[in-house]
Amino acid sequence: MLLSRPLRAKNTTYLANPNLTTIKPDYPGNRMVDGAFVDHRSLPRSLWEVLKWKLSPNPKRKEKSEEHPSMKIITHAALPQNKSDDMMWLGHASFVLRIGGKTLLTDPCLTSPPLVKRHTPLPVAIEEINPDYLLVSHGHYDHLDSNTLEHFRHGQALIPLKMSETIHDINAALTTQEAGWYQEYRIDESFSITFLPAHHWHRRGLNDANTVLWGSFVIRTPQRTIYFAGDTAYGDHFKEIGTLFDIDIAILPIGAYAPRWFMGDSHMNPADTLKAFDDLGARELIPMHYGTFDLSDEPLGEPEALLREIGHKHPIRFVHIGEMVSLG
Fold it and tell me: How do residues 289-324 score in pLDDT, each as one tens digit?
């Protein structure tokens, strides 16, 4: 059951999960107006704006048409079972983590979302993953894929507020636990998981704009603190998260940023990502959200190339898809 606190303003409430601990003192919950979550900048794009973008000339069109992206893929017949904690990038925003003997999967999109081609194959078959926990940052199809969820026959989805119905409509075998920003999920494990802010938005259908929350995650293990940003624009939430947690590894998006007038309020470009990393005060940056799906105007290989060019003074680890990264 969720806790809804009516305010004086009509149709405005603050929503939180009363069964969870809120780590930010006096935080009332996530604001909803007329049934939709709001913050100061997270608004879905209108149909007119989408049409304007799609009908506008792309200055990178020729470069995209001549591009032959070739990301390195390390394939596995089965998911490696190491004694120490580790993680593997599966492409886009999907990572599989093994922590304390449990398997976690972030933003499950391991096939192709509707009308979007997948440009990188999976390094391991979906059937080999079998997650104990699914961490879903938001409901966009490239982060929450129905075909992917249908493969799983057990596990708990750690999700934003108001997402349970979506998960159960896809796969009734999964249990769910919803959290608002700054709330820690109740799990009896050697690690903890906290849901945190992001500047983004929700939509899966025509009439559900921002009816489900969005956010990011911090995973704290006995050895490492890992920040997974999901999808987000640059904002002051990074500096705040950096004051709340001592972050070792920051997994941050770098792609789907052009044109800026359309994408800037939803996605970071590589320069934004470096600012976010500095604000977080993290020790290592692992970039994601590039190379797998063509979602915007820039060429698939541009985000990585640009980050390599401007980020040489930062501790960046470019991870191959299928590469094992130790968390010990």
Answer: 999 999 999 999 999 999 999 999 999 999 999 999
| Domain extent listing, the chain | 92-326
CATH topology of domain 92-326: Metallo-beta-lactamase; Chain A (3.60.15)
Tell how far CA 202 is from the center of its chain: 12
Neighbours of 146 (CB within 10 A): 17
**Nearest one of 229, 199, 233, 206 to 217, comparing CA atoms:** 229
Q: Which of 200, 193, 165, 199 is nearest to 179 (CA)?
A: 193
Q: Among residues 217, 180, 165, which one has the least CA distance to residue 17? A: 180
In this structure, are residues 171 and 192 in contact, taking their beta carbons and an 8 Å threshold? Answer: no
Instruction: In whole angstroms, give the CA distance from residue 195 to residue 57.
Output: 38
Residues in the chain: 328
pTM: 0.94
What string of DSSP letters covers 298-326? S-TTHHHHHHHHH-TTS-B--PPBT-EEE
Interatomic CA distance for residues 163 and 135, integer angstroms: 12
Report which residue type is found at 239. K
Sheet (strand 86-91) strand order = 175-179, 156-160, 133-135, 102-106, 94-99, 86-91, 324-326
CA distance 189 to 203: 32
Q: What gap in Å lies between CA 121 and CA 274, rounded to an integer?
A: 28
CA dihedral 251, 256, 259, 261 (to 10 degrees): -50
**Which tens digit of pLDDT belongs to each residue from 219-265?**
999 999 999 999 999 999 999 999 999 999 999 999 999 999 999 99
What's the helix, strand, coil split of the chain in %, to 5? 20, 25, 55
Q: Is the pLDDT of residue 73 over 80?
A: yes
DSSP characters over 245-276 = ---SEEEEE-----SHHHHTTT---HHHHHHH
